[in-house]
Amino acid sequence: MQLEGNVIVCDSIDNKGIEILKNAGLNVEYLPEISQQELITKAKDYDVIIVRSRTKVTKEVINSATKTKIIARVGVGLDNIDTLEAQKKNIEIINAGEASVNAVSELVLGLMLSLSRNIPNANYATKQGKWIKKDLMGVELKGKYLGIIGLGKIGRNVARLARGLRMNLIGYDVVPIDKAFAQEVSLITTDLKTLIESSDYITCHVPFTEQTKHLINKEMLSMMKNGSYLINTSRGEVIEERALIDCLKNKKIGGAALDVYEVEPPTNKELLELDNLICTPHIGAQTKEGQELASTVIAEKIIQKLSERSQEDIKPN
Ligand code: NAD
Q1: Which residue of 54, 104, 210, 280 sits with most ligand 1 atoms within 8 Å of its CB, as the best mutation to test the pocket?
Q2: 5: burial class by Cβ within 10 Å (0-12, 13-18, 19+)?
Q3: In the structure, which protein residues have their CB atom closer than 6 angstroms to any atom of ligand 1?
Q4: What pLDDT digit, counting tens, does each position of 41-89 carry?
Q5: Measured between alpha carbons, how far is 188 from 106 in angstroms, rounded to an integer?
Q6: What share of residues in the chain are helix, strand, coil (percent, to 5)?
């Protein structure tokens, strides 16, 4: 079935999804550099608006998007879309939650290994002509306790990968953790406080909500094991950054690795200058495979939704 309709792609996405949409008959405009103001002006022309994270689908954009049926986020979080306003206008919102699971999980392993073996500092010093081998005594992941906060799609995948590295797993979630899964990876389920106190590594995989804002705060950080490590690839707001800076400054914990920040890009020099902190620029989902999958998943979801709508339209009353 060939579809009709106009689609705007406002951020850079993998070409595969664009081809799928075009092959389905849709008219796709690829404007990955479009400014916020231009989008407000043009939004009225499109049935579907596709974004990643650069473009903000604000109330103003939604108000001018008078014929838009779908807003699609090629990724997971919907923080850049005014979902309430979209709901009011009966605009469907779709995302590609499945697509970045492996990409984020592998980054978590990379960050844990980087922290444990001091890889970023080792690289930097060696290239500066400094042979600092004696300062680079590392620790191994094997046999260490990894505390996973949030056992959703990414948390569960991290658990499976970490098990392959022979880590011991501790998990906490607000919803009951599936028993069969816990058994499969020998995961001990517990409350947040016990997880924090018992883990050598802690990794956060919760969404950003009112309940998860500063879930890891000063009190929680003070309960972490001396010399343990904290990794956050979820959302910056989940960790109280001010408290983390203090905790890293006084070397209470061994180090932290952040892919996400309270303000992105991060500007706080006090944070960025810490030598026991590893920073990456929100690259959790930034893999070739992840992006290709995300654009494909989104294109297929859009086609399915638009097909359902056109079937509805031709149904006799
Ligand atoms: P998911 O919805 O599959 O899982 C989230 C889990 O967190 C659920 O099991 C939920 O019950 C649990 N949870 C919610 N509130 C909680 C709380 N207060 N305490 C404990 N557990 C709680 O989500 P996901 O796909 O696994 O994504 C997890 C996080 O990763 C999200 O914040 C998402 O935005 C982020 N993410 C980041 C990147 C990146 O580029 N760094 C990419 C993709 C996803």
Answers
A1: 104
A2: buried
A3: 76-77, 97, 100, 104, 149-155, 172-175, 205-209, 211-212, 215, 233-235, 259-260, 282, 284-285
A4: 999 999 999 999 899 999 999 999 999 999 999 998 888 999 999 999 9
A5: 22
A6: 40, 15, 40
Task: Give the pTM.
Answer: 0.92
Separation CA 205–CA 233 (nearest Å) = 7
Q: Find tokens 């008078």 and name the residue.
A: 66
Question: Per-residue pLDDT tens for 271-302?
Answer: 999 999 999 999 999 999 999 999 999 999 99
Phi, psi (degrees; rounded to nearest 5) at 197: -70, -25
282 is an active site residue: yes
Domains of the chain in sequence order: 6-98+288-314 (3.40.50.720), 100-279 (3.40.50.720)
Structure-block tokens of residue 282: 């929100």
